[in-house]
Amino acid sequence: MNIAVKGSEDRTQELAERLSSVGMSFTKLESTKNIQLANFDLIFDLNFDADNTSLPDYKALPANVHLVLSAVECQLEAVIPKSLWSQTLGINALPTFINRNEIECCVFGESEPSYLKQLGWNHINQVASRVGLVSPRVVCMIINEAYYTQQEGTANSQDIDLGMKLGTAYPLGPFEWAQKIGIVNVYRTLTALYNDTHDERYKICSQLKTAYLKQIAQ
Questions:
Q1: Does pTM surpass 0.90?
Q2: What does the CA dihedral 29, 63, 114, 42 come to, rounded to 10 degrees?
Q3: What does each C-alpha distance from 112 to 22, 88, 108, 128, 208 come to in angstroms?
Q4: Which CATH architecture has domain 3-126?
Q5: How do the domains of the chain map onto residue ranges?
Q6: Is the pLDDT of residue 193 over 90?
Q7: For the residues 81-108, what does the mean pLDDT come to?
Q8: What is the CA radius of gyration of the chain?
Q9: How far is it, in rounded angstroms, from Cα 218 to Cα 213?
């Protein structure tokens, strides 16, 4: 399978680790401009929901080339033309969610793509196409609530992390998870969720916003 990948370094590296587990590799694309995309069987765009500037290039793809697009910050049906739906798969491409045995995805074609298990994802969690999908929606909301808990002075970040791991058997505490996912990704996901739903559950805690602003200022 001839695979091309476009995306940030952390996401690309995580995908490389997943594919290497089944003996596969890929061509890294810095851009889709002036590239013969038709030469590939499968194209990953791991930051598509935050940067869809490659969409004009994808519109010209032959029907036998499949697209796997990050679909956390946007609902893909609102972005990609219907002509691409049958060859497109949306995934949760946030850091820490790629190099796993399970992949969370939304399918636009008639059935689950057969190539997923070939790529090392033995368990396919097919979810509805919505902003935030399922896992990012839940995890980022928990992280946001943890920041509110710290802001109110109920507990510090270390105690909250420990309490969540011991009390709920979470693999990581919310602050630890925020660092691994990236505070910028958490902030952007919550912003997209709030803009889409106007649900107060996704209203960003001021301490989390401050952490985000410090991160992007570096």
A1: yes
A2: -10
A3: 20, 11, 9, 13, 37
A4: 3-Layer(aba) Sandwich (3.40)
A5: 3-126, 135-217
A6: yes
A7: 94
A8: 18
A9: 9
Distances in Å between the Cα of 215 and the Cα atoms of 44, 157, 184, 187 are 27, 18, 7, 11
Q: How far is it, in rounded angstroms, from Cα 178 to Cα 143?
A: 7
**26-79 tens-digit pLDDT:** 999 999 998 999 999 999 999 999 999 999 999 999 999 999 999 999 999 999
Q: Under the phi-then-psi rule, with left for phi > 0, alpha for psi from -120 to 50, and beta for the rest, what region is 64?
A: alpha
pLDDT value of position 109? 67
* Structural tokens at position 178: 């925020």
| Reported CATH class of domain 135-217 | mainly alpha
**For the chain, how many helices (H) and strands (E)?**
8, 7
Q: Which residues contact 65 (CB under 8 A, 6 or more apart)?
A: 37, 38, 40, 41, 42, 43, 87
Nearest residue to 18 via CA among 90, 87, 108, 116? 116
DSSP-based three-state secondary structure for 51: coil
Residue 89, both tokens: 């798969």
The rounded distance, in Å, linking the Cα atoms of 172 and 169 is 8
